[in-house]
Task: structure prediction
Amino acid sequence: MSTLTFRAATPADIPALIALVTSAYRGDASRAGWTTEADILDGARIDAEGLQADIARARSTILLAERDGHLLACAHVADGGEHGYFGMFAVDPTQQGSGLGKQLIAEAEAYGVRAWGLSSMLMTVIDVREELIAFYERRGYVRTGIKKPFPYGDERFGIPRRDDLQFEILEKHLSGLPR
Result:
């Protein structure tokens, strides 16, 4: 198997990013993996405008994981001031469970430390996603107990299929990573 490579996304990657993230979280294609949100949310997961803003923003990078030029996974890493931010983590459903996601998380954390000197990383996860939260906990993230309301009515976050959704903040201290 050829080597996994990482690089920063450019505007030319936006269509492939939309396809990847959608396939990992929404619709029937997402059911091939374990990260699907198809039972709790419909609609778009991301859009071109939001991706363009993340790519263009200072101290913000969308990392791509590729093998032989094929996009397999992505994650958004940004310097949020006091903490870094980790989000938009998606792995091709046919590659989930292969260890690729673990590699990308490690690369994203190391990138945040190298690029901006981050000492901790925050992420938001829909709190009913217990299996996903457990995955992040195995990677060293901890539940902070901080909850944020789900933005019902804002279709940029999807169309909820249930009325009990909220975000939970997870945090990881990055003190062991080389600077």
Observations:
- The mean pLDDT is 89.
- The beta strands are 4-8, 41-42, 60-67, 70-79, 84-91, 120-126, 142-149, 159-160, 166-173.
